Amino acid sequence: MALFKPAGYFIDLGLDYIDLGEYKKAMKAYKKAVSRAKISRAVHDPSRNTGILITTAMAYAGLGLAYNYLGREQEAIEAVKHASRLDPIWEGYGGIT
Questions:
Q1: pTM for the complete prediction?
Q2: Which of 10, 45, 60, 92 has a CB 3.0–4.6 Å from the CB of 33, allowing a cystine?
Q3: Residue 76: closest CA among 63, 91, 58, 57
């Protein structure tokens, strides 16, 4: 039986791939993190669980970083903007604006 891996697992995996220069793998990991975070948000009331919103923002910020390394500038900007709408701390993350 496969275990459900939470968004945080894929955020960490994405960061590991970024460190290794494996940007396509990082992008895929962050996309899974976004998807898992969205599932968590659907199950919980986001107004009562800011941790889920922070995780979602972190996943989008990481996705933006991966897109940036892949030369996908517009997608990087959109992902980081999405992250900063959820949590302003991510505004301009990685120099992406």
A1: 0.85
A2: 10
A3: 63
What is the rounded CA–CA span in Å between residue 67 and residue 43?
A: 28
Instruction: Give the length of the chain.
Output: 97
pLDDT tens readout for residues 16-75 = 999 999 999 999 999 999 998 876 554 445 555 556 678 889 999 999 999 999 999 999
Asked whether the beta carbons of 41 and 73 are under 8 A apart, the reply is no
End-to-end CA distance of the chain: 42
Q: How far, in Å, CA of 36 to CA of 30, rounded?
A: 10
Q: What is the dihedral of CA 16, 55, 81, 88, to 10 degrees?
A: -120
Two tokens, residue 83 = 């992250």
